[in-house]
């Protein structure tokens, strides 16, 4: 009876809230119409309201200000209209589901409890006086995530407010209809969470706003330290939390920060698509997204061929020869290390006195300024000046030299010839320019010479323009040569800096030089190359970005972190990852980005130990792969035991996988067949393609649709699927200790079912 009464009361409350929302929408639509009409009227009357008078300088100023004022009025009206449209959208979202929770809280010293309804946005009453729905990010809403009924507190404006939470209730409201409600006890609606986690996977990660757990809430709302490091087991919600955190930061700093000042660094384009819908679903604009290789490509891609991380991985994962494998691995991990950064720092000090390389400046096949001349000019400045400062002076000097050379060039024969060959259009352009400059008089004697002179000037200027541009961009610095010189065993650098070079330095040189000769920058060289370039040419920075989040941080090297820190000097950082999912070789034998020591005093670390993605059975099996005693706490959701099947050959394997797919397709929407490499995927695709409807995902894939997917493990990073089939977990396929975490990452993508196959002997990881 009591329940029935509460149900009816809540239904009534929902109806009242919906009425307010309808009222707000109508009001806003009315206002929006007004702003629109105003903008149209302003546009129509724009020139009537501005008196254009250009007679005197004062008149020009007056006209300018009148136009500016009118433009500002128009822009205000358009902005107000945009804001109104945006708010209508927020209310329309609230109309579907105005709130997901209610807490009743009585503050110490007060009598009446406050009923706090919590939703994805704030709703005020019709008079705009009282809050009907609290935004989930409001300080008071924090209690919903942090406490169970009983003593509770929250912090607002630096003050701690204490009291008692009398009730904590959750709602499921869909299409404006109350579907269910339940009072919760110990943790936030285990039932609701269970319900959500048992659902099928999606092409996009979902918002977790209604079921954020207390330990996740701390991360979302943390604002104290410059660096927040989050180490969390597979499936513990790191990505979900990162996205909720962006929404929180946008709310908390809404007057200071916009979505385009937040950057999420992601592993690949597929992942970008996977996470891109959460913020719009929460009514916020999306943050910017970038992969490290995209950044490197923006800076180096035009001049060099860059190796993609997947290419590096494929090469290592398919390397059969153990010695070769170890050599490659050690080279890659040295180039990712802070020891290598130190070597480059010392190299830069060395270059301060000698050894910087320049290019000749060539015009029409002729060296007009030699590299030697530039070198001499550069080193004529004292070495107390920084290299970038000296390069700026060299640049100015070169531009002056070019101006002199350009003048001298005008009388050369080739210019005369080029003038003869000009078409009518160029002539008339030069004629009108001369007229504009007041040098053409229609009747003066030297008009013809003037025109010739003008044309010659134009021709030479046009030919010199690319040179000037290159000088302005410091292209005269021979960056590739400078980087290459470091690996030249015959150069004096190798003697001077020998004490900083590892034992296998010769191997490193032998492997690097042929690449550089082909203008090929291996993935492990990208960050060091950019770092060296910045040290020499001057630091490139982006001061607009205020917060950088690095997801899957375990796969970035300390060197890459340095490059990012220098690139975004104004940014705070949230760094999320799981050491057990390290798959990129450059991180092996190097400090992890999850290690606070890399950041000094300014870092705080938070740990997530509970996994929400997979069933208890899957978590128990995958935890065994780690073999280091580490514990993964499973959320209490059960499912069938994962299967491990040994088959004698590939034909049998295909048959079994097809059987599995057919069987799994009945209950699930997204089934992934995960292979070790793209090469293996291609071979499997050929076999499966005409027997089942399967999507092949590779490094170029930007999105996936629900269905059956075939992909290499590195592309599945960060993503999840209803069921996962591991293609061939044989001892032959996964034999190296360094592939353990790679295999673990693949298996932990499964939410509900995991099926592992092996041709003959199974990998020792299991
Ligand atoms: N509080 C929560 N409420 C509902 N779902 C949650 C919650 N926390 C995590 N999840 C769900 O658990 C799954 C795993 O989350 P997510 O992908 O963010 O984990 P992760 O730590 O980034 O995993 P990995 O490191 O393995 O890629 C997702 O489906 C996510 O929606």
UniProtKB/TrEMBL annotation:
Q: Which residues form a coiled coil?
A: 11-45
The record's listing under InterPro entries reads: DNA_helicase_UvrD/REP, HelD_bacillota, P-loop_NTPase, UvrD-like_ATP-bd, UvrD-like_helicase_C
Q: Which UniProt keywords apply?
A: ATP-binding, Coiled coil, Helicase, Hydrolase, Nucleotide-binding
Pfam families for this protein: UvrD-helicase (PF00580), UvrD_C_2 (PF13538)
Q: Where does ATP bind?
A: 232-239
PANTHER family with a match to the protein in the record = DNA HELICASE IV, UVRD / RECB / PCRA DNA HELICASE FAMILY MEMBER
Which NCBIfam families does the record match to this protein?
HelD_BACSU
**Protein name from the UniProt record:** Helicase
Q: Which organism is it from?
A: Lysinibacillus boronitolerans JCM 21713 = 10a = NBRC 103108
